[in-house]
Please model this.
Amino acid sequence: MIIAQLIVNSLIIGSIYGLVACGFSLIYSTNRFIHFAHGVSIVIAGYMLLLFHSTLGLPFILSCILSIIITSLIGWGMYNFIFASLQKRNASNVILLIASIGILIFFQNLIQIIFGAGIKSMNLFQAKSIEIFGAIITPLQVVIILVSICLFFALYLFTSHTKIGRDMRAVADDRQLASIMGINTKKIANYSFIIGSALAGIAGILITLEQNLSPFMGTNLMIKGFTGAVIGSISFVPGAILGSFLLGFFENFGIWFLPSVYRDAIAFFLLFLFLLLKPKGIFNWNKGVKK
Amino acid sequence: MLELRDIDAGYSRLKVLHDVCIKVESGKIVVLIGPNGAGKSTVIKSIFSIADITKGKIFFKNKDITDMKTHELVDIGICMVTQGRANFNSLTIEENLLIGADRIDNKKIIDMKLDKVYHKFPVLKKKSKQRAYILSGGEHQLLALGRSLMQSPSILILDEPSLGLSPKLQKELFKTISELKEEGISILMVEQNAKKAISIADMTYLLEDGRIVLKGGKNILKNKKIKKVYLGGR
Model:
């Protein structure tokens, strides 16, 4: 059953893109600049897992937790040492975007110096594939889909039911009004970077288990996550996640007709199409939000 | 209570205000009027550190607050209703109101305040679970005012509160503002509707080209300048 297999593949790739997009869009919505270095946070998490588990031999769960914490800290550092100090000098959002691309290139090369340019793989959890409705899926891929869906749900509960989540939505709506209402916008920006980068860390771990690691894979992942976010709604986290799943479906059903090397071309085509025709995305339910 | 002393302020290189002195006494209503572009909103923005102050100091309860950050002012009791549709559109109306009560820990007091606001503005209760972007212009203004009531400020700063309200709602608004004064809240208000504003004010300042050109009580209405500019002389 080719359709079933395509749907399963779309779900797997969609959840990975969704994990990239949700952290990215969380950071975008509260800070209003494009944090491209989010892509390298994902790769850092992968290499940290490799370091802790394969090289140092720490237990798997502990390695995962350490990787997520380190990724979170690096995200926090990126905001405080680079973006916040640029913002203090009244840097525009374009300058912050350029700075984030600089951070991306810096860390990618740092990883290459430390771990080498070659492809690394973990080869963990090599269990037998299972068959669902004629589609073949590995247990790891099932875990990826389940973990990401649980995370999306947790993120939704966090933003809709906690005070910090509500403050994040308020800052995303209107930054100036939020600070007039007594919300410390810098604190909220810090939270968004810590949580967003932790999500990147989880994405990095799952991607490392599923695919191979290479120092420059972050750029491509970021472009896919960004495309997913643009399709859905860049400033609205649930929209960004749904957009990423849509991108997964478009890619997989696209390469049913086209050679599979066109996978990236499909994503770019959609990105241009949406930026030209519907830059706010199709799942933008936050009507009337100040831009 | 609140005092602006010789304030020069503006936005980066653009200077808007020159030597502005305004004093709000405790429990009084002070109104700031002036033509468009006179710098009325900039006065308010300079209190909230949104505009840059280049000279002068701001005092609140004899404490220098010139360099305080925007988000810290709520803590000491200075609250503001900003101009036009000033609500969080993707939050529900109830969340919009509750954001004002962030500083209160006691849930009973919060519920009591919420009931009071709903009683005052029943239209907000009817739509409390809906997102704020569905509200009309006038309802937006009521929501913003309602939220500032949740904050229990010692001074409330209002930037053109009557903008976009129907005559009936305007009347309601000015009544509410007078009631707030009865509760002991000091008020600093920028208003286009000069005649109505002066009639409830204890002190009125006229701002022109970033300078205070006139100040006085209710008798200011009889002043030639005010008559000429605001009450149809020109």
The interface with chain A takes residues 12, 48, 50, 69-75, 80, 82, 86-91, 95, 99-100, 102-103, 131, 133, 147 of chain B (CB under 8 Å). The mean pLDDT of chain B is 87.
